[in-house]
Specification:
3 helices; elongated
């Protein structure tokens, strides 16, 4: 369905990969008291973890 509309496909992927981990990043940054460098490292780790979960979900979904 989205293959006919590549812009919609790209926007969907950007939203999926950016919005899904956003609440966890906001919660982590608001609750932790650490340096900005450490918080950035935690944020990158959260992104990697959530993207890994999305990859696992997409690779094991039923057909």
């Amino acid at each position: 369905m989205l293959k006919k509309h590549p812009l919609a496909l790209y926007i969907t992927w950007i939203v999926a990969l950016a919005v899904i981990p956003l609440p966890l990043i906001i919660l982590t940054n608001s609750q932790l008291t650490a340096d900005y460098e450490d918080l950035f490292a935690y944020d990158v780790g959260i992104l990697a973890y959530v993207w890994w979960l999305v990859i696992i979900f997409l690779s094991t979904r039923p057909r």
